[in-house]
Amino acid sequence: MDANYGVLIQNEPTSYLVARLAAFAAAPGFPNVRVFFIGANLSQNWGIDLPEEIAQVLPNRRSAAVWRLAQAIFDRRCRFIHIAGWGGSALHLPALLLILLSGKPFTMESDTPEMGERRHWLKALLRRAWLRLLFARALWLLPAGSPQARLMRNMGADPAKIHPSQLTVDVAAIRQRREAFSSEDRAQIRARYGVADADPVILYVGRLEPYKGVMLLLDAFEQLAAQWPNARLLVAGGGSLEAEVQARAQTNPQLIALGRVQPHEVMMLMFSAHMLAMPSRIEPWGLVVNEAMAAGLPVIASECVGAVEDLISDGVTGLIRPHHDAAAWANAMAQMARNPQLRAQLAQAADQRIAHWTLQDQARIFQDHWSPLLRGDAP
């Protein structure tokens, strides 16, 4: 007879989720799980070729997708279900209804904090009632971090059920690449973009959208560039503001617009820069913060970045500056640029912090909550 299993329902295969599944598979004694993704390339083109032995992407036709989930959930061998989030796709509602109808224990995760969205009072009331029901029925709530845990508490969840799951990236793999990255490699990357070895380099990685604070960063850098003619800002990413960023780069040789870059190139840029800037106005988490910390790159982030609450202590593991204050950002970048000792101190403290926020740590958290369910030991 086939082994019992748990069902995992995730949004889309991303690089960090595929790495997380690999960490699950490598963890000794990790529960047997069947993984279903609601879709592929929903938020962007991730370009991930997902082997079927790792996970399945559900069919595009909703009825077929619901049937596939129902077969897995109502199978007598299925002992628990885990679902990521409670909205964002047409499949979330039917999936959650299937879970509730099955009567089987389930857990939930979310990387969404409360971000002050304005809703019609009736929609807000219905949403709150729905979430309170889900949180009451869920056995465990495994939010990404502290901001998401606070949302769950504010929506009426029992605090005893809430155990943050430490959303992260493959810290160990990034550290290995960092150790293998030589000074010659660094010089080669910087030379590729016309950056001298002594030039202070600020790196931005992310979508070029208004909510990311990109234009504030460019304004802040203009203030810095007027005082530091050898400072460089490398902007990696694409989006609706890409043409505007390219136009600013044409008039300011200290600004280098890279467009979209591949993940392995992002790592090389991180190993070659002096600091990472993340000035988002809205950022549920911001895994680029985790990546930079693992890469040994000090971070300047806004207070709106979700990862800040758990990972960045201002002046200790990074710098936190207001998302609306370009002068404060210019001063922070100048502070980092002129003080290599500060950069080294922040990077070292950040490295120590991220060392306890790895995929292996995350796998242990999930394993601790799922293993008893697979054995039928639900409390």
UniProtKB/TrEMBL annotation:
<dbReference type="InterPro" id="IPR050194">
    <property type="entry name" value="Glycosyltransferase_grp1"/>
</dbReference>
<dbReference type="GO" id="GO:0016757">
    <property type="term" value="F:glycosyltransferase activity"/>
</dbReference>
<keyword id="KW-1133">Transmembrane helix</keyword>
<dbReference type="InterPro" id="IPR001296">
    <property type="entry name" value="Glyco_trans_1"/>
</dbReference>
<keyword id="KW-0812">Transmembrane</keyword>
<feature type="domain" description="Glycosyl transferase family 1">
    <location>
        <begin position="186"/>
        <end position="352"/>
    </location>
</feature>
<protein>
    <submittedName>
        <fullName>Putative glycosyltransferase</fullName>
    </submittedName>
</protein>
<feature type="transmembrane region" description="Helical">
    <location>
        <begin position="80"/>
        <end position="101"/>
    </location>
</feature>
<keyword id="KW-0472">Membrane</keyword>
<keyword id="KW-0808">Transferase</keyword>
<dbReference type="Pfam" id="PF00534">
    <property type="entry name" value="Glycos_transf_1"/>
</dbReference>
